[in-house]
Each structure stands twice: as C-alpha cells, then as structure tokens.
Specification:
Number of strands: 5
Shape: globular
Radius of gyration: 13 Å
Order of helices and strands: EEHEHEHEH
Structural class: alpha/beta
Distance between the termini: 25 Å
Oligomer: single chain
Largest sheet: 5 strands, parallel
C-alpha cells in the first residue's frame, strides 16, 4: 500500500481525515476534509468533488489502520491516494498543528 511520512507532507497538500466525529472535534489538521470511515461509502461523492483532479489524496486517521482501508479502496477506484504513516498521533508528535473547528488548539483523541 502506498504510504507517505508526515514529514513529507507540505502545507496545502490535500488531506482526508477518516476518524469519527468525536476524534475530529477534539482536534484535526487545519484544512483537512472530514469524512468518517463509518460514513465513507455514503459520502464518497464529497471526496471526489473536493479532491484535486491532478493531485494526491493523503488519507489520515489516528494511527493508520482505518486510513489504510480507505487508501486501499481509493487506489482500487483509480485515485492517487496514500496512507499517512502513523496518522494523527505522528502528526501531533512531529509538532504539526492540531486545531479545533473554532480555531483553538486541539489534541489527538
């Protein structure tokens, strides 16, 4: 499965967060698109509308398991997708910003 390290992501790279609502509300990467794994199939169209046409979809969850499932599915659909290795836990540990919807400092649940 294609993966990417948190350190290789640049500001502005498209990020799809597949964690559940309570995890998202606790904190997320600013600018990420949130589609929980439990809603992913029903909301797939939101991703295809928002994702860059010629860009990569970087899929993230808490630690990498759920995002790996979504990445595999997206690759099977012909989408350039990669799993963010280590997920939001590594994101936060690397000092990348974690925010709430209100713009405050968030945390990884």
């Amino acid at each position: 499965m294609p993966t990417v390290e948190v350190g290789d992501l640049k500001d502005g790279d498209f990020l799809l967060d597949v964690r559940e609502d309570d995890e998202w509300e606790a904190g997320h990467a600013e600018g990420a698109l949130h589609i929980p794994l439990s809603d992913f199939v029903a909301r797939y169209g939101e991703l295809t509308e928002a994702a860059p046409q010629d860009g990569r979809v970087n899929v993230i969850c808490r630690s990498g398991g759920r995002s790996a499932q979504v990445t595999t599915y997206l690759v099977q659909q012909g989408i350039d997708a990669v799993n963010v290795d280590g997920g939001m836990q590594v994101w936060a540990a690397a000092g990348r910003p974690v925010v709430t919807d209100e713009g405050g400092t968030g945390f990884v649940l």
